Amino acid sequence: MNRKNYKVGKNQKIEDVLNQMKKEGYTPIRRMEKPVFIERDNGEVVVDHQEIVFVGQRTD
């Protein structure tokens, strides 16, 4: 396995995920962000939070 995805949880810090990657021997090579939408009772669509995913490459 040469690459692995790391998703930042809703109550997790980016720094914690980066430290976990380093501990497991991976270096971040890409960061992807996408908004997560929710629909309110009145039909309005708003952004709930950002979903952040890091792609890590194995460091040998």
Mean pLDDT: 94
Instruction: Kindly report how far apart the N and C termini lie.
Output: 12 Å
* Rg, alpha carbons: 15 Å
Which spans have pLDDT < 50 for at least 5 consecutive residues?
none
Supply the helix-strand structural class.
Answer: alpha+beta
Strand order of the largest sheet: 1-3-2
Structure description:
With 60 residues, the protein is of the alpha+beta class. It has one domain. 17% of the residues lie in helices and 57% in strands. The protein is built from one helix and three strands. It has a three-stranded antiparallel sheet. 5% of the residues are buried. InterPro entries: NETI (IPR025930). Pfam families: NETI.
Which short descriptors sum up this protein?
single chain; 60 residues; alpha+beta; three-stranded antiparallel β-sheet; 3 strands
Write the layout of secondary structure elements.
Layout: E1 3-8, H1 14-23, E2 26-39, E3 45-58
Antiparallel strand pairs: 1-3, 2-3
Concise summary:
With 60 residues, the chain is an alpha+beta fold. Helix content is 17%, strand content 57%.
